[in-house]
Amino acid sequence: MNIEVEAKFPVDSLVQLQLQAEALGFQFPREAALEQDDYFNHPARDFRQTDEALRIRRCGSELVLTWKGPRLDSLSKTRQELEVPFPVAPEQITDKLQSLTAILLALGFTHSGCVRKLRRTASLVFEGRTFHCSLDDVSGLPLHAELETLCEDSQRTDALQSLLRLAERLNLRLQERRSYLELVLTSNRDDSAPPQPDAQSL
């Protein structure tokens, strides 16, 4: 069973964090990758209640179908994760994305939201484990960074402790346990809320 041990942190400056991470040995690409994540809800159970996620990620010339299970602890965003990549020729990616989406919709799934972000990701072996650090600029949200590693379920506790020690080395302490989709949907609701009366006019 693949377990994704992950934590997300709001940050003030991606440039500053990148410098700190590179001092530890991370090597980030010069250009950020554009990722588009389309999320879908199940026709028979509400993923908002079961704390699951199903998404299609479009990045470059690849599509990835991902299911994430419920969060497994109260300290991070650790979940079981299953992924199926679909390498696609660049000129076909839009048609393939539409076809995958059409299959899910035909089965009764509903589109629940879209997250777009610019991401730089680098890897580092820390305490014997390979960790990925992602610097994320998500459309409509503050800046965030994610740390993650994959492990077997029996290694989950040790992997999480290593991740938290790595986060401390990077001065990342305040966690955000909500997903980007949850944050985007909350932001959209806040933006659509009617204006509140000025307190001085009451």
UniProtKB/TrEMBL annotation:
UniProt-listed Pfam families: CYTH
Taxonomic superkingdom: Bacteria
Domain CYTH intervals: 2-186
NCBIfam families: cyaB
Protein name, entry field: CYTH domain-containing protein
